[in-house]
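Posting this for the archive.
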Amino acid sequence: MHPPPDLPPRVRRFSRAERWIHRITAALMGVCVTSAGCLYLPPLAELVGRRHLVVTVHEWSGLLLPAPLLAGLASRAFRTDLRFLNRFGPHDRVWLRSALRRRGPRPAGKFNAGQKLYAAWLAGAVLVMLGTGLLMWFTGLAPLAVRTGATFVHDWLALAVGVVLAAHIGKALGDPEARRGLRTGSVARWWAEHEHPLWRPGDGPR
């Protein structure tokens, strides 16, 4: 599939600011998850040692996790894409049904329904992890019973985040053009038309 001669072969998908937001967030999340593994998995804990340093790295990487997103609000392109991610329309329900049945059409705007659900779930999970982590870090904020509950939620949600992130990375590894879009900011027109047929660069959120 090739675009007509009067159309460029690639289309702009992400701005430079958006790409850096993704990279910094991914790096902080990677440090957070890796340090958590070193704290909770005995083989890794024995291999790394220096538990106090690992705890400090884990705490600060978690605390800084929302920072790239908050800084990114200064970018108009990033704010626009947040509106894309926050709109769930009839075509998204069609996409989800087809994905669950593994057949049928999968109409999508700039982001498909799976990406929208992933973004919403991860944003909520990060907020919960941040809140429960602060209760565990500053022990004077709440009584012991509350801190115990916070620890339980934090630990099990961390496991869920690890599983979801692994699925996200696996999906990305299977789509080189999507990775190229995050690396360079542009994607092939044929890919955009096939994977996101409702997306028209410059249109409003879908």
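Residues 172 and 179 are 6 Å apart (CA to CA). The longest strand covers residues 10-12.
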